[in-house]
Specification:
The protein is an alpha+beta fold and 617 residues long. It contains 12 helices and 31 strands.
Length: 617
Amino acid sequence: MDVQSDGTSRRLLLQAGAAGIGAVGLGALPGAVSPASAVTDATASASATGAAARRTGDADNPRFTVAVVPDTQYLFDTDRGDPAPLRASFEYLIEQREAENIVFTAHLGDVVENALGMEFAQAGPVFDILDKARMPYSVLAGNHDIDGSTDDQRGDTPYLRTFGPKRFRKSSTYGGSSPDGYNSFHVFRAAGRQWLLLAMDWRPSDAGFAWAREVIADHPRLPVILTIHEIVYADAGDPVAKFSDHGDRVWEQLVDGNDQIFLTLNGHYWPSGRVARQNKAGHDVHLHITNYQDRYYGGSAMIRLYHFDLARNTIDVETISPWIMDQNPARRSLLAEGEIELTDETNRFSVPFDFSARFAGFDPQPVRPERPAGQLVIPGTLAYWRLDGAVGKVIDRSGRGNDLTPVLLPGSAADSLQVSSEHHPDQPAHASWLFAGGKDPARGGYLRTADNAPLNRQTFRNGYTIEAFVKLADDGADHSWEGLLSRLGTGADVGKTGSDPSEPVAKLGFSGGRQAQWAVYPLDKNDTFTNWGHEQVAGRWFHLAVVNDGRHSTLYVDSSELLRNPSTRSNGLSTTGAAWLLGAGHYANTIDQGFAGSIGDVRIVDHALNPAQFLNA
């Protein structure tokens, strides 16, 4: 819960309606809870969530990790191996489960070297570490785990007795296996949704591929990660992966026609590499080969950590050896020092990945519907402008008569103001106006209240919220010192002598570096008070809001509180009783620049008319 110093919350914001709260304001909702009960419930929920996260990770966090363990065969090679590195890797994953939100671990095959029962007798107990911690994982057969000349119809083997269906029946993610037992699938929950992982045999038969296709068809909305021992390889010095002959068969039989498969992971070959290839749907499938058995100590049970970040639309990948990391640095060998982590671009990299767009073909996310204006006119609303109609007079949906009239700057084109269907995804109205403004000379169009509009006289002594949905033009426009919303009248006009008295009495806009800025002359101060934000990205919609509790102002971008907010108290907004301007700023009451970009919904709320609306979050 984000709370101001007086206990008020910012959740009245237009954007907060995404949580089902701010669209109408909690003050207007039946059954709204008291602040005390809200805090108590939140504390209890956080405690329960934290305990669950220690056990199973945070299934709703947009950031989660899938751990990948490639070929470990040299660690289990008759009497020549050493299980300690793999044991250390598994113990590390368990220790880091909560911190890294590790939701699943996938072994890519070649667990052992010679497919011998004695080797599996060594390897099986190491995997017991994961079982005892209830850490979900999968294992698949590589060519060294079975007779490499056979497919998944080979029948009973030491591998199947160790890592067959019986081992996974108690796993929370295990979904089932093919009748032969060599192919399996898991469904895990992360980032608020379910994901499917296929663990396929070294050589799936036609029946094995048919089984996998059926599993995918039975889960038509789940994104799929395919793990298999062989599909792509890379040559030394060339990290761009290529398809093996068997990889072509896997692509044709399973990947190409199943758009849900977005990532494949395989071992078998070395060195590591990756490539992206378009499937029949025209979407990229990312194919990664990772294997370190050729490196010091049989790869020292190196693990790949795939950090999925749905908030940043990125998959960050790192490669580490927990076994070497845990060694005493004073006793660590020279060869081990170079294997703690691999930081070359083949083994430590980031993949930009728009999850929503990539998954839209099989799991489209519902578009948030347009909301009626009446739902947004909460108590205290002095002005609510929706730029969703033809260019012309904009009616104040609050019903308080603060309508806007368009004005063209001298010499500006008639189409300097245009209607657009573009909008912020959380915006109540699904439309905006495009402002084709600029400066030197000032050009474009803007909107203004009438000279006698009630809003012009408001001083907001008890606080206010001003918010807008905005997109800065990315066509090379100069946004420095650009005004989004301003009030005519200068500091000098209201008797102020501090700072630069030619500046507006109030201006919400952008500084020389496209930093969001709220600069005002308060009623009780002689100087301007300024809130500074960070540089905004042109061409991207964002929600901008300034909230004043009657003493302090706080600037927000996309509901995130910004840093540079004045701590000194100030009260109200000075006014000459002149008009408000939307899409323009001014200096010495002369408009020096028209706004360049798109503006959606804009709302101004006076806290004096709704003193209780912030009390519930």
